[in-house]
Write a structure and sequence with these properties.
There is one protein chain. The radius of gyration is 19 Å and the shape is globular. Strands 2, 3, 4, 5, 6, 7, 11, 13, 14 and 15 form a ten-stranded mixed beta sheet that branches. Strands 10-8-12 form a three-stranded antiparallel beta sheet, with no helix packed on it. Strand 16 and strand 17 form a beta hairpin. The longest helix has 17 residues, at 56-72. It has a single domain, classed as q2cbj1_9rhob like domain (Jelly Rolls, Sandwich). It is an alpha+beta fold. The protein is built from six helices and 17 strands. 43% of the residues are buried. It has helices spanning 18-27, 33-45, 56-72, 112-118, 121-131, 209-225, and strands at 2-3, 47-50, 77-80, 84-87, 102-105, 135-143, 167-172, 183-185, 194-195, 231-232, 240-244, 249-251, 263-270, 286-290, 293-297, 303-307, 310-315. The structure holds 2-oxoglutaric acid (AKG). 2-oxoglutaric acid is lined by residues 141, 143, 146-147, 149, 154, 168, 183, 249-251, 263, 265.
């Protein structure tokens, strides 16, 4: 059994008339030639890279925020293999976790550097056109080591009201190569028949283990049958990579498990598909706007206090 995205709400890049419409808008100067090539590549291949877009200095600044969050135990959450999702202040120090499979969730709640890095003008501009609506950063995941996540597509995991309104964004915070577990992907795989997982939200926390495996096998078989070849994203620090809601991808095993692979993943949806933050119930979000893109914040502003090197929020979380 396979599943179809609702045709009436497909993003611009997935619509039948996209190639002709793109050509027209490029010819009349509404879209630059460079951006047009990127949109066309994304539509056909399901991904596009922006070499050096964030740049090494801003990537370093992001890493500093990540390290500070762990050290000061910022009031955000982390997903840790064997523990699940937990508040950072309740977790032991990183060195005591006994696994490299952990990530910080939603560092943008606490970091202006992260907010600005996710909403770079080139990213927002690309997404606004590709999705045909204002992009909203739904969530982010900061990995210190390679995720080594199995083969998957994102739409059953990261859901908004419109499954197809989803683009993944991968920001390299250090150089990535075969040894530290690069992102892998299958160009063109976003057009494969889609696995029907039966609704609800799939998770990687072990709860849906059997279905996660079935999903991976379905995708590997689909790619093999159509001759799609696996590629890896060997990135330089500061590179950015965007991928389609249905691109088949995952995290390669790290040849050197001690080698870090710092990266920030942001999943974007749109204002129409994702009008409220998943974490705040029906609450109307406070809008953080930057370069035309959005991040949702608690209506109640967060009040942060620092005591003895520890940071605490009194309001808003
Ligand atoms: O960064 C990785 O290794 C994989 C990330 C990923 O697959 C995702 O966030 O959907």
């Amino acid at each position: 059994m396979t599943l179809e995205f609702d045709r009436s709400t497909l993003p611009w890049v997935d619509q039948e008339g996209f190639p002709a419409s793109l050509q027209e808008q490029t010819a009349n100067g509404k879209i630059s030639k460079e951006l047009s090539e990127k949109l066309s590549f994304f539509s056909e291949q399901g991904y596009v890279a922006f070499p050096g877009l964030l740049g090494p200095e801003r990537a370093d600044a992001l890493v500093r925020e990540h390290d500070l969050a762990w050290r000061e135990k910022w009031p955000i959450q982390a997903l840790v293999e064997g523990i699940g999702v937990a508040d950072l202040p309740d977790l032991p120090a990183k060195a005591e976790l006994g696994t490299h499979h952990y990530r910080l969730n939603d560092i943008q709640d606490a970091s202006e550097v992260a907010r600005q890095s996710m909403l770079l003008p080139e990213i927002v501009n690309f997404l606004t056109l590709a999705l045909g609506d204002t992009p909203v950063a739904m969530q982010s995941l900061f990995f210190e080591y390679g995720s080594e996540q199995g083969t998957h597509q994102d739409f059953p995991y990261v859901q908004s009201q419109i499954l197809s309104h989803l683009v993944g964004c991968w920001i390299a915070c250090e150089d990535v190569h075969a040894d530290n577990g690069p992102l892998f992907y299958y160009p063109g795989s976003h057009r494969l028949p889609k696995f029907d997982w039966g609704g609800g939200s799939l998770t990687f926390d072990g709860k849906d283990h059997k279905q996660v495996e079935e999903f991976g096998e379905f995708l590997e078989t689909g790619c093999r049958d159509r001759g799609l070849e696996r590629q890896t994203f060997h990135a330089a620090k500061g590179d950015v990579f965007l991928w389609h809601a249905a691109l088949v991808h995952g995290g390669s095993p790290a040849n050197d498990p001690e080698s870090t692979r710092k990266s920030l993943v942001v999943h974007f949806s749109t204002r129409s598909a994702y009008p409220r933050d998943r974490r705040y119930g029906g609450e109307e979000p406070r809008l953080y706007q930057h370069n035309g893109g959005l991040i949702y914040q608690r209506a109640e502003p967060t009040l942060w206090i620092r005591t003895k090197g520890k940071i605490k929020s009194l309001l808003g979380r």
